[in-house]
Amino acid sequence: MSEPRASHLLAAKRVMRYIKGTLEFGILFPKFLNENSMELIAYSDVDWCRDKQDRKSISGYLFKFLNAPISWCAKKQPVVALSTCESEYIAGCMVAC
């Protein structure tokens, strides 16, 4: 911000062109009939000991609201799990947080 260059301006223009071209994209939420039909669903999964270098597992989750995806993530667990059960527990804690 203190020393802007021409390359920074070009990058900003590129981002603005991208945003302008994707205005019609988005998450569509269906109409619901009553408040009882509104539900938040969470899915989680783990790939135990996927990375053979450090033996860390990869956790993933997906949140859906009114059957439309609103949040998802896949990342390596910070610790080495000694069993699939422990790995699933760590993934469940990540989703709950």
Short description:
This protein is an alpha+beta fold and 97 residues long.
The helical percent reads 25-40%
The shape is flat
Q: Main beta sheet: strand number and arrangement? A: 3 strands, antiparallel
Order of the strands making up the biggest sheet: 1-2-3
Fold and architecture overview:
The protein has one domain (29-96). The model has no long low-confidence stretch (mean pLDDT 88). With 97 residues, it is an alpha+beta fold. It is built from two helices and three strands; from the N terminus they run H-E-E-E-H.
Outline the fold blueprint.
Elements: H1 6-21, E1 40-47, E2 58-65, E3 68-76, H2 84-96
Antiparallel strand pairs: 1-2, 2-3
Keywords:
flat, 3-stranded antiparallel beta sheet, 26% strand, 3 strands, alpha+beta, 97 residues
